Amino acid sequence: MAQLCFEGIGITHMAAAVPSKVIKNREYTEYFSKDIVDAIVDKTGVEQRRFSTNNQTSSDLCYAAAIKLFEDNEIDKSEIDLLLFISQTPDYRMPATSVTLQHRLGLSKTTAAFDINLGCSAFVYGLSVAYAYANIPGIRKVLLLNGETRSKVYHPKDRQTAFIFGDAAVAVIIEKHINHGKSFFSLNSDGSKSDLIKINAGGYRIPSSEETLKEKVVDEHGNIRTDEHGYINGGDVFNFVLREIPKSIKQTLDYANTSLDDCDFIICHQANRFMNNYLIKKLKLNPAKVPSTIEKFGNTSSVSIPLTMIDKLKDDLSGDKRLLLSGFGVGMSWGTAVLNTRNVKILGVFELR
Q1: Which of 2, 64, 80, 175 would disulfide-bridge 187, Cβ 3.0–4.6 Å?
Q2: Which one, of 151, 102, 135, 100, lies nearest residue 297 by Cα?
Q3: Burial class for 121, CB neighbours closer than 10 Å (0-12, 13-18, 19+)
Q4: Residue 252 has pLDDT above 70, yes or no
Q5: What is the pTM of this model?
Q6: pLDDT tens track for 164-200
Q7: Is 170 helix (H, G, I), strand (E, B) or coil?
Q8: CA dihedral defined by 308, 199, 196, 215, rounded to 10 degrees?
């Protein structure tokens, strides 16, 4: 277990962008009957999602969120010394999307830039990297851009995944400030479970071919996908969450010498309503402290934690607040953080057409 502690570092600004295209799940019945669709929506809690257009990428959404952040807060771009781009749906295999965003955003050529390729835990992981760099004397501001277009990853004829995932992006500024308190991170991984959420083909181990692009019936329920679409072993993923996440949260709270009662908000990865309700019950959380956006945006992978913060806590992060973040999923990988924040300026969520 990697445990990290920082003092005098914090989030100062946040903004989010989503595609303007709204998918209403109960009307998403091209391949499945209305009864099947309603049953899925009732279980997952995902009423609607946002889908990017064919030529809209994660970097487009991140760019829009970053420009909004710069313009509305009069942020001096010359003070950004590091750009981090978090995504598993980058623009290209190479070059790194972070470097193309550095140029597109008009940042200095002295700006460091690199990508982080992780799934649902990645915002917590990426935030720990941002805090670590911001802790270095030569770094003034870190721009963390986190975007996903998961609608492009899963097959619409696979009912296990077709009604869950959506697209979104956030832009976050992290910097030093004497008034920021201590923040704590716990980062974990278990590659023995890497087959639970996976895209089998299309990479360098199993390159794209005619065979990998063929639609195939993959189970007794008649679900269809190609080898280049994502799949999820839902039962085993749920068992993983049962086993690891409550334990990780308790260990991180102990490390931070605090308790759930002392946390103003607990923001969990928006996997699905059933899973999040289980965590609320298991940890005996006050539901009023656990904001949810699963019904509005679906599962946006790593973006779901900051998107929930921006959408639900826009007016609640003034003054001093203590937040617990819990991200978990593909890898398998999970991260927990206890953040002491101060006057985070949140612009909200806006649409990109």
Answers
A1: 2
A2: 151
A3: buried
A4: yes
A5: 0.95
A6: 999 999 999 999 987 888 999 999 999 999 999 999 9
A7: strand
A8: 110
